[in-house]
Structure formats: structure tokens, C-alpha cells
Write a structure and sequence with these properties.
Elements lengths: L2 H13 L1 H4 L7 H8 L10 E4 L7 H7 L6 E5 L2 H10 L4 E4 L5 H7 L5 E6 L8 H14 E12 L6 H14 L2 E7 L6 E7 L4 H5 L1
Parallel strand pairs: 1-2, 1-4, 2-3, 4-5
Antiparallel strand pairs: 5-7, 6-7
Helix pairs in contact: 7-8
């Protein structure tokens, strides 16, 4: 990460710590841990929620057959501008994760096969988390994966546990938990795979 990107990150944290969720950007070890287990096929569509300054983005794009498979959804307009400069061959939308379906329609994107999230669910208000989880459930295919992380020190926070419970209700049980210790704050990488609905099974 460039000094300019890091300075932008620190300013965003100072302005709104809960929306950024960390004082330092994610280390390469965490970025690698967020993506190494995912297999992207050429027809898959991948969305990143909260790419920030691009710590995970370059790892995601490196695994895709084409950058056209990718869409980043970032709330902070300055981060969005920085991302577009860093990755001019990829597409980014400035907007709220709660409005995911609307964003997909505006960018003429189909349902999502893989979703990677850097959003700080441990510090987000419960009502916001609920809206995001519901939006993700509605915008993903029947076997979609959802990968995110939670810091060790925040893993047992009430909001963090409520998020995991909501994900289990909408997506099913966690299929993978992997701890990444070589990060500024040790973190757990969490992956769900969407469970087919009863309607889907009946079809």
C-alpha cells in the first residue's frame, strides 16, 4: 500500500472508526487467507463488499479469469476514487451494501456466486447488519459462498455473534474457519456456503 493510500485510510478511520473498523489496513497474510481457499470459474460473478483501499482486491483480481467478473461495492467515495485509480481495469460502485440488489441492476450484473466482505460487522449496528445479510441472501445464487473475517479481540462481541447467527440462519452453518495470526490483529476468516431453500429443493 502506498503512503497516500495509508494516509487516506487513517483519515477515514479518524472520521468514522465504526465504518472502517480497524486502525491499520489488512496485512498480506489476511488477504491471502481470505482468498486462497476460493475457486473462481470463468463464468462466476464475484462481489467485494467494503474493499477499502484494496488490500483484498488485488488478491481477488489475480485469481479471476477476467476482471469483468468482479464488482467492488464501497461506501466511502474517496476510497472508491482511490480504487478506480489503482485498478482501472476493474469496476467499482460507490454505495451501501444494504442496496446490493439495486447496485447490481444499475451495473447490469447477475446474481453473485462469491462474495468477499471486509465490512466490520462486529462494530456495525444490528439493524444495518440485518439489512446487509438479507440483501446478500437475496442477491446470491443458490450455492454462493460468503467469506469475511472477524478480529480475535472482537470475536465474542455481541454484534459479532449476532452477525454469525444471522448468517447461519440465511446461509447455513459455517463451512470453514481459519485463523490468521500474522496480521496487525489476529483474525478468523469465516466462510459460509449458501444452503438451497426448500423451494429450490422441491424444484
Amino acid at each position: 500500500m502506498s503512503l497516500q493510500s495509508y494516509a487516506l485510510f487513517l483519515r477515514a478511520f479518524a472520521a468514522n472508526p465504526k465504518s472502517v473498523g480497524a486502525l491499520f489496513p489488512s496485512a498480506p497474510a489476511l488477504a491471502y487467507g481470505m482468498t486462497k481457499h476460493l475457486t473462481f470459474f470463468p463464468h462466476d460473478h464475484v462481489v467485494e463488499l467494503g474493499p477499502g483501499t484494496g488490500s483484498f482486491t488485488r488478491y481477488i483480481l489475480a485469481k479471476l479469469a477476467s476482471p469483468k467478473q468482479y464488482l467492488g461495492v464501497e461506501l466511502n467515495p474517496k476510497f472508491t476514487q482511490e480504487l478506480k485509480q489503482q485498478f482501472p481495469y476493474a469496476e467499482f460502485a460507490c454505495g451501501q451494501a444494504e442496496q446490493l440488489e439495486t447496485i447490481l441492476k444499475l451495473h447490469q450484473r447477475p446474481m453473485i456466486d462469491h462474495l468477499i466482505s471486509g465490512l466490520p460487522f462486529a462494530s456495525l449496528p444490528k439493524e444495518v447488519t440485518t439489512q446487509i445479510v438479507e440483501a446478500v441472501a437475496d442477491a446470491t445464487t443458490t450455492k454462493a459462498t460468503f467469506t469475511t473475517f472477524q478480529y480475535l479481540h472482537a470475536y465474542q462481541f455481541k454484534n459479532a455473534k449476532e452477525f454469525r447467527a444471522q448468517m447461519e440462519e440465511k446461509f447455513g452453518p459455517l463451512i470453514r474457519v481459519r485463523w490468521v495470526l500474522f496480521n496487525m490483529f489476529p483474525a478468523a476468516v469465516l466462510t459460509w456456503q449458501k444452503k438451497p431453500s426448500l423451494t429450490t429443493l422441491e424444484l
